[in-house]
Amino acid sequence: MSLTQKWKTEWFGNIRGDILAGVVVALALIPEAIAFSIIAGVDPMVGLYASFCICVVIAFIGGRPGMISAATGAMALLMITLVADHGLEYLLAATILTGVIQLLFGIFKLASFMKFIPRSVMIGFVNALAILIFTAQLQHFVGETWIMYSLVALTLAIIYILPRFTKAVPSTLVAIIVVTAIAVIMNAGVRTVGDMGNLTQTLPIFALPNIPLTFETLMIILPYSLALAIVGLLESLLTASIVDDMTDTESDKNKESRGQGIANMITGCFGGMAGCAMIGQSVINVKSGGRGRLSTLVAGMFLMVLIVLLGNVVVQIPMAALAGVMIMVSIGTFDWSSLRNIHKVPRSDATVMVVTVGTVVYTHDLSKGVLAGVVLSAIFFAIKISKVKVESVLESKSSKIYYVKGQLFFASVTDFVASFDFNDNVEQVIIDVSGAHLWDDSAVGAMDKVQWKFEQKGIIVKVRGLDKESSHLMDKIGGLSKASGH
Amino acid sequence: MFKNLLLATDGSEHSLRAAERAIDLANLTEGASIELVYVVDGSMSKSDVLQYGDSDSASKKREEILSVFKDKIEGAGIPVKVSILHGNPAETIINYTNRNDFDCLVVGSRGRSKVQTMILGSVSHKVMKHVNIPVLMVK
């Protein structure tokens, strides 16, 4: 397929489906963008501008057509302390820096490093995200009346029951309209979006963050930007794989990383908070018939049109309706099959998943959870692979053969050395390592140590079956220690 | 009687029973063949990608699940073709059945749990209602 042809199919291969799906996604994006702004502790406009900017930019330069990127819960949760301690301007600066880091990730093709993140960590990441979105809603229930509770219940009832009868209109939208209408007509006096912050009916304008350009500023925002960049790419590439699978097509992950980076840089300059791809919205988009870049563009454009035209209605949405929608989002985000299968997967994988979730819920930081999960997985892996088997066979009365099987490296050498009997009453020992591999200087050191211990007892040691790489390593490191008198 | 059979499966053990009946049906007609169709929906894409890493490994895993069915049909000496489709299960099966030239559709009656059926409705029920050819629903 030529480049123009590809461009044409990506943009105009599915015009009707893309426009319809884009409209559905825009309607579903508004409550989420507002709710995520409230989680981050900023005005609803910050999330709405972010969703608009990111959607529009990604439509043009993203690597996965049909994927929806906007303000997300995963990112909002990382910003809470930055906003609380330093304010919005620092968040905007951090957003731009996040974009720069992600762009570099894409340019240097580091997307493939994501494969070092084990699947159980990814499952833990998604589940932890769902739990945090849910717990972030609990604050809206504190000190509220039964009116608020029943509005939340009504929202959830409409969201889950309406699709039984019709799928023509998104049930979340109907739920929000009905609950808002009830609250306004009954004059219920419940808290609304308008009470949570300002909502201006204007387009975003270009402005660099108003912060001192010092090293100190950089040091404040850098840790946040790093965490945001990693979490953003993690969720974006995961979502890209899910869209790949849903549409049975492929996508360019490095291009997507660069696209996410540029989108965040531009968003930060237009007063928006950092965002990334959204699993839930992308699934809604594809399910509604969206396949091409046009769907993402329509979603972003239509969202802004709605805010400009209907801003004064949006501020009247009760927080109860938003909380209901967010509870639905968290239920949809959670990977329930991981709970059903938890007794089937290896115990170490289940532990990694639970530790990832636990760390996130405790620290409220998704990047720390991922780090804990990766480290724990590495430890489990080392334990699993460090099991070295040594079997001894008496060849003749005076000669014994040790067959070594497994990986010799820093974590396995202690067991390795301990499995030899140095007080044997033999003249010669043969160590057969054809079933083993030496990985590092600890392994070479251990081999030396075994030889030396036998030699001290006057037993001759022969090593056989060293593979090419291992013997090369022995020559390089072992030769040195021999020369130094061992 | 029925030469081109379409067997819709969700990979569950229960739908293996539907496969057995499809084989019985195919044995009645000389030169009958079975096409096996499996539909991946959005939420399945999400959990499979999470569990197996990426789209390619998920696809491979699905082929492994379906190979049980494929081997069973091939073992009975009936030609079989496997198709993996993407989308809403009921709609996709209905469209695929009506757009192609099949003589009979064989489906299992139950894969979803009671709660899922209550919320989402039964796939087989919807399929029964909207396909234009005879349907064999295996209980």
UniProtKB/TrEMBL annotation, chain A:
Protein name per Swiss-Prot or TrEMBL: SulP family inorganic anion transporter
SUPFAM superfamilies linked to this entry: SpoIIaa-like
Pfam families associated with the record: STAS, Sulfate_transp
Annotated source species: Evansella alkalicola
InterPro entries for this protein: Membrane-Transporter-like (IPR052706), S04_transporter_CS (IPR018045), SLC26A/SulP_dom (IPR011547), STAS_dom (IPR002645), STAS_dom_sf (IPR036513)
Domain (STAS): residue spans on this chain: 389-486
Gene3D superfamilies, A to Z: STAS domain (3.30.750.24)
Record keywords: Membrane, Transmembrane, Transmembrane helix
Subcellular location: Membrane
UniProtKB/TrEMBL annotation, chain B:
InterPro entries named in the record: Rossmann-like_a/b/a_fold (IPR014729), Universal_stress_UspA (IPR006015), UspA (IPR006016)
Top-level taxon of the source organism: Bacteria
Pfam name, any one: Usp
Domain UspA positions: 1-139
SUPFAM superfamilies: Adenine nucleotide alpha hydrolases-like (SSF52402)
Assigned protein family: Belongs to the universal stress protein A family.
Name by which UniProt lists this protein: Universal stress protein
Taxonomic lineage of the native organism: Bacteria, Bacillati, Bacillota, Bacilli, Bacillales
